[in-house]
Every structure is written in C-alpha cells, then in structure tokens.
Amino acid sequence: MPSSHSIILFMISALALNLSPGPSILYILSRSIGQGREAGLVSVLGLATATLVHALAMALGLSTLFLYSPLAFAVVKYLGAAYLVYLGIGALLSRGPLQPAAAAAPLSLGSVYRQGVVPDLLNPKVALFFIAFLPQFVDPAAGSTTMQILFFGLLFHVTGVPVNLMVALAGGRLATFLARRPAWARVQGWITGTILIGLGLRLALSEQR
C-alpha cells in the first residue's frame, strides 16, 4: 500500500491535471452542448471507462507497446483521429440551416457512451501519459507495483470524474439556453462538430514522445 504522503501528493497532482483545460473537457462540452446534460454525463462515464482500461493496460505492461513501437502508435492514433473527425462531420451535417434543434434525432445514450469510450481508447497519448505519470508515485518497497498502479489509476478518477461532471452540467445549462432559441440551432451543431474535428486533427498531428 502506498504511503499517505504519496497518496496526498498524487491527489494534488491529479486534481491540478484534471482542472487543466484539455481534450476531455472539450469533448464533454461538445456532447453537453450538442445534446444536453444527460449526454454530457454519459460521455463522462465513457471517458472514465476508457481511462480505467488504460490504467489496467499500464498495470499489465501492455501500454509500453506504444512507447517502443512507432507503427503501433501511428496506427492507433490515426484510427482515433479519423473516428473523431467522422463524429464531427456527422454533427456538422446533422441539422439543416432552418431546422430547429429539437427536430434532430438525438443519439441514444448507449451511442453517446460508446463515442466517449472509443476515441479515448484509440488515443495512445493517454496510454503514454499513464506510463509517464503513474510510476512516479509507485514505491516498490510498498508491495505489488501492479496493484499500486491500479490503485492510483482508480484514485485518478476521484478527482477526474467530479470535475468532468461539473463540466457536463455547465454544458447542459448552455444547451438548455440554446434550445430555447431556435435561431441558435445551427450554432449547436457547428460548436459540437468543430470541437470534435479539432480534437481529431489535434490527435492526428500529435507526435510520439
């Protein structure tokens, strides 16, 4: 079991990282603005699921594949980028110029969840982040390193999930505001689509470090 000092230091570091604006926050906002609060909350669960999978892969040593194989990194990166751009284009084309937001067929919450999981799973930068971040707090003398990595991976969500939930709720309020103004229907689609395409291009242009 890690020391209390390591746990406190990890919590402070994780909170600072989770409060920093990044792709996850932008993605959650895009979903909340595009389809409302429930979609934003479900996207938080999708991202959390993917992050847990990355932490498990890190604990089992699978994530090191991205560290030592440029080909594996590139293949997964471009698949993830293409998926995000595909979702973004779909959002841009989902509403006609005079069609109100309420008339657009919303995605099922199951689809929203999957769309939260897949891009994060196909982002090797997340795996590399865990490779660089989690081991700093692991003490080999404190027991199994695998269990410690899993512990810190779960602990990361103690700060990450509440922060992301607040972002989803804030985006949901904005979506409600826009929904009451039909003239802003196109803007909702443009905001969602532009953010998703931007995240896809950002991932495609990222480099292995």
How does the SSE layout of this entry go?
Layout: H1 4-19, H2 23-35, H3 37-60, H4 64-68, H5 70-93, H6 109-121, H7 124-133, H8 145-179, H9 185-205
Walk me through this protein's architecture.
77% of the residues lie in helices and 0% in strands. It has 209 residues and is an all-alpha fold. The protein has one domain.
Task: Give a concise summary.
The chain is an all-alpha fold.
Write out key terms for the chains shown.
single chain, 209 residues, mainly alpha
Shape: globular
Question: Percent helix among the residues?
Answer: over 70%
Rg, Å, rounded:
18 Å
Into which percentage range does the β-strand content fall?
under 5%
Content-based structural category: mainly alpha
**Main pleated sheet:** none
Taking the alpha carbons of the first and last residues, their distance comes to: 30 Å
- Count of DSSP strands: 0
Number of domains: 1
Q: Give the averaged pLDDT, no decimals.
A: 79
The number of helical segments is: 9
Pattern of helices and strands: HHHHHHHHH
Low-confidence stretches: 96-104
